[in-house]
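Exercise 7b. C-alpha cells:
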C-alpha cells in the first residue's frame, strides 16, 4: 500500500476508537483522505480534526449504525459511486460473549448483523467499482477466534470464521484483477470491545494483550510485505503454512464419492 497520488480515499468503519481510529491515523499518514464511519459523532468529529491537522489530509465523518439497513445503504452508495475510494477497511464489529443459553437471540443477531452482514454488503458494494478501476484494497479485520471456539464465543467465533472464509474466497475470485484483499487476524487487543462484550479488559491476561497501535502497525507491515493473510501476534509464520497444508489434505480426502470404511455396517 504505497503512498497514494492526490485524491485517493480510504473508508474505515468502526473508526471512532480502537483499531479503526489507529487505521485512520496510519492511512492519513500515508496521504489518504478519509471517510470515517461510526456511531459516535463527537468522537468521529474529534478524530477527523486530529488527523486532518496532523497529516494535512481531508477527513469526513459519517455517523452511521451499520446494523441498520438505512445507514448501511448510505455507505454502500458511497462505496459504489465515489470513484476516489481506493481502500475499504472493514473494521466495525462487536462481541457478545457468554454461553448461548445465557445470552439472548438479539445478542447473536447483532453480532451477525455487524460482523457478517455489514462486512459482506460493504464489500459487495465496492468490489465491482474496484474491478472496473483495476485497483483497490479491502482490509477485513477478523480474529484468531476464526479458527478457535471457546465456551463463550460460539457466535462470535462463527462470525469471524465467516470473515476468514469469505475473504479467502474473495482473494481467489479477484486474482488478476488488480483488487487485493488482506485478512487480518488479531489476538486479544486492547479495545473497548471487551468491556462491552461481557468479559472486561481487566480480566484478560495482560501479558498476551496487544495495543491497537502495535496491531495496526503489524497489519500494515504485513501488507507492505505482500501478505494477504496477516497474524499480527504469530512469530512463527510457518505455522500458518502447516495449518493450510493440513486443511488442504483434509479437503482432498473428502473427494471420494463413498462413505468411509468405518461407517459401513456389516
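Sequence design result:
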Amino acid at each position: 500500500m504505497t503512498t497514494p497520488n492526490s485524491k485517493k480515499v480510504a473508508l474505515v468503519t468502526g473508526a471512532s476508537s480502537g483499531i479503526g481510529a489507529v487505521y485512520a491515523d496510519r492511512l492519513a499518514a500515508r496521504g489518504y483522505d478519509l471517510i470515517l464511519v461510526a456511531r459516535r459523532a463527537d468522537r468521529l468529529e474529534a478524530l477527523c480534526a486530529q488527523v486532518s491537522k496532523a497529516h494535512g489530509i481531508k477527513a469526513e465523518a459519517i455517523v452511521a449504525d451499520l446494523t441498520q439497513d438505512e445507514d448501511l445503504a448510505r455507505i454502500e452508495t458511497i462505496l459504489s459511486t465515489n470513484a476516489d475510494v481506493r481502500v475499504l477497511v472493514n473494521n466495525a464489529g462487536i462481541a457478545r460473549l457468554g454461553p448461548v443459553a445465557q445470552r439472548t437471540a438479539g445478542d447473536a443477531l447483532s453480532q451477525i448483523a455487524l460482523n457478517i452482514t455489514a462486512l459482506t454488503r460493504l464489500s459487495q458494494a465496492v468490489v465491482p467499482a474496484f474491478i472496473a478501476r483495476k485497483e483497490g484494497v479491502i482490509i477485513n479485520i477478523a480474529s484468531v477466534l476464526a479458527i478457535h471456539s471457546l465456551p463463550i464465543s460460539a457466535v462470535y467465533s462463527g462470525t469471524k470464521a465467516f470473515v476468514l472464509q469469505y475473504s479467502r474466497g474473495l482473494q481467489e475470485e479477484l486474482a488478476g484483477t488488480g483488487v487485493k484483499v488482506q485478512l487480518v487476524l488479531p489476538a486479544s487487543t486492547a479495545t473497548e470491545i471487551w468491556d462491552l462484550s461481557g468479559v472486561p479488559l481487566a480480566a484478560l491476561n495482560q501479558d498476551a494483550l496487544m495495543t491497537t497501535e502495535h496491531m495496526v502497525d503489524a497489519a500494515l507491515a504485513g501488507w507492505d510485505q505482500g501478505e494477504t493473510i496477516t497474524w499480527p501476534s504469530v512469530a512463527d509464520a510457518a505455522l500458518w503454512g502447516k495449518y493450510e497444508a493440513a486443511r488442504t489434505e483434509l479437503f482432498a480426502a473428502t473427494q471420494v464419492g463413498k462413505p468411509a470404511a468405518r461407517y459401513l455396517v456389516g
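Instructor comment: The mean pLDDT is 93. The radius of gyration is 19 Å.
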